[in-house]
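Annual report, structural modelling task.

Input specification for the zinc ion complex:
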Amino acid sequence: MLLGLSKIIDCPGGEIPFETTLDLSEMRFGGCCPLNEPVRAVGRVRNTAGVLLLTGEIDTNLNGVCDRCCKPFRRAFHLPVEVVLVKKLESEQLSDPWIFELQDDQADLDDIFTTAVVLNMDSQLLCDPACKGLCPRCGKDLNDGPCDCKPERDPRLQVLEKLLNK
Ligand SMILES: [Zn+2]
Ligand SMILES: [Zn+2]
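The model returned the following structure:
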């Protein structure tokens, strides 16, 4: 969605609300596309003392397979977004991913929110950030409770112990 901002570009204090639905179902993370439900983005663009500030948030669900416990999961995904919009990017702003250039006084909301999701997505896809994962030795799902394996000893410590025992 392109959001026209010509009404507020030269009007400090002016603001334009927006609400749109994005399709990010093709966006890949690892081997899957976890954003396969409609993604709702709501917010507003406000001219704050001449600076165009977009604030909004994304709401959807993640569907995927957990990288740690290997179980399929579905959980809420919520992301606040805040970016600055400028008529023309200055060279020192090129490296700032949170500054976007307007095209014909319009903000490209798809581009802005897609970029925000990419920049905020964790490198691992987890059913829960606190997922305990599987035991590397017996394969038990540690979210269901501890397994009977003894804690792995650090091989460097074993070398040290051998030396000390001599
Ligand atoms: Zn998990
Ligand atoms: Zn185990």
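The chain has a mean pLDDT of 92.
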